[in-house]
TrEMBL record:
Forms a complex composed of PxpA, PxpB and PxpC. Catalyzes the cleavage of 5-oxoproline to form L-glutamate coupled to the hydrolysis of ATP to ADP and inorganic phosphate. HAMAP family: PxpA. This is 5-oxoprolinase subunit A. It catalyses: 5-oxo-L-proline + ATP + 2 H2O = L-glutamate + ADP + phosphate + H(+).
């Protein structure tokens, strides 16, 4: 692979509560998953991040989630299909409106947190998110967990899918992410994270938490913006990939 996309979850500050260093991250990543107000983010903060992304020519995606501000979208939920489809359409539409004002546009959709992990294997909720995306704009790309059943499900429904790997998260042997409540679920050492991602891009392999070597198809790498060392990790990953001969560019650039 000659190039890879580097993305991060941004726009998650809410009122006086600051979450992450969005400006610094936008100088590093090539795609930005912007909160849509359901799990995090308020309209003014989201608009500010969109304007900065547009200024830096960073591709923008809708980071849709469960209606769960208190739980930061990380609590499992079981909304009806009508609710999930409506909520997903609502969030994409809201971000599209703000993006238009910021002189950019929404190019893809990446579910957040518990919704992301649920649709990876839950065919019903995955179908709802897919239906919502298609109802808004079938040209929108879905970003999904590499190796998960949702990838084939979305592609068979006609969506373009970008497979994603997580730089700072540990993997189980089956390719799923280690539960955040467990020790070692989040990796904080920038050098360790960067080395893992260079190997993933060049060899297609990553070591699971139990030592198992697993294969992953990934066109994008995520560095979470809400971890304490997020900027350092993202910068180290980018620098390591560039030194390794890998070009960093958004998958929306073709």
């Amino acid at each position: 692979m000659a190039y890879i996309d580097l993305n991060s979850d941004l726009g998650e500050s809410f009122g006086p509560w600051s979450m992450g260093d969005d400006v610094s991250m936008l100088s590093i990543v090539t795609s930005a998953n912007i909160a849509c107000g359901f799990h995090a983010g308020d309209p003014a903060a989201i608009l500010g991040v969109l304007k900065e992304a547009a200024r830096r020519s960073v591709s923008v995606g809708a980071h849709v989630g469960y209606r769960d501000l208190v739980g930061f979208g990380r609590r499992n939920m079981d909304p009806s299909s009508e609710e999930l489809i409506g909520d997903t359409i609502y969030q994409i539409g809201a971000l599209q409106g703000l993006a238009k004002v910021a002189r950019t546009r929404v190019r893809y959709v990446k579910p957040h947190g518990a919704l992301y992990n649920t649709i990876a294997n839950d065919a019903r909720q995955a179908a709802d998110v897919i239906a919502a995306i298609q109802a808004v704009d079938s040209s929108l790309i879905l970003m999904a967990l590499a190796g998960a059943p949702v990838v084939a499900q979305a592609r068979s429904s006609g969506l373009t899918v970008i497979c994603e790997a997580f730089a700072d998260r540990a993997y189980n042997a089956d390719g799923s992410l280690v539960n955040r409540r467990l020790p070692g679920a989040v990796i904080h050492d920038p050098e360790v994270v960067a080395a893992r991602m260079l190997r993933l891009v060049t060899e297609g392999l990553i070591t699971a938490i139990d030592g198992t070597e697993i294969e992953l198809e990934a066109q994008s790498i995520c560095v979470h913006g809400d971890t304490p060392a997020a900027v350092s990790i993202a910068r180290t990953v980018r620098d390591t990939l560039v030194v390794g001969g890998i070009e960093l560019k958004s998958f929306t650039d073709g």
